[in-house]
Amino acid sequence: MTELRNIPKPQLDARQLGARRIPALIDDGLARATGVRIAFTGRAGGVSAPPYDELNLGSHVGDDRAAVDANRARVLEALGVPAAKLIVPNQVHGTNGVQVVACDQESLSRAAAQAAEGADYLAVEVADVAAMLCFADCVPVIVVSPTGRFAVTHAGWRGAVARIASKAVASLARLDRRELGAGAAQWYNAYIGPHIRSECFECGAEVVQAFRQEFGDVAIADACHVDLAAAVSADLLSAGVQLDRIADAGICTRCRSEEFYSYRASGGTCGRHAAVAVRASRACEMDDAPVNYRV
Fold first, then answer.
1. Residues 148-170: pLDDT tens digits?
2. Domains of the chain
């Protein structure tokens, strides 16, 4: 049990993945310890034409679907799992999620159908099934268990204030109860990906008040700016995740819209980058290299 729980503390490193050298933030130590590969992608390395250039992974923004499918295939290839089954939910800014607990065709079809009906997190316990959620300013959150199970979560401001991160952790912990016991979340690694940071997330008084009522002043930057990362971190802590097991990329998508998609910076027309996680059923190295990429 002690060995199972002993996985490296989380960190996010910038790499160029695969033969196409797709820029992403990953955790090599996590992959070696658990087999779970995580990635926060950017907007470079794909085939989409402007205004979705280049690595658009969202199928709902008006981009050519063939380009989106090609981009998704490139990401799986870069992670070393080109044959993995991919589930991309229809994100609805809610708090519902889907558990993926079996990898036979019927079970996967059922999970994919549930995700298509509307879901903002996926909790996965089987190998070779990739969860991909898409973003352009909202907060991507990946939580990984030492058992190799994981959850990928989309936290817009509505989801963040409704504590979707802790709901995803609770869903993962239910799957982990037999191996890790009631306090499973204390062993989890959590990763907060690029999103709009407090200096750029200007919002109305009613949004500020909603966060203050839920989290106190911890998530309030000033009278018209909310710190989404602080809110999500507080939510993760309330669910039992330890502070030293939360890694924050610290990247603002609006400030760095040349590297990441930003709904606000683009005026509402843009592609989507992704948070993706998958556990490989066999050991194989990701073909990656360091990249001059600010974190």
1. 999 999 999 999 999 999 999 99
2. 2-280 (3.60.140.10)
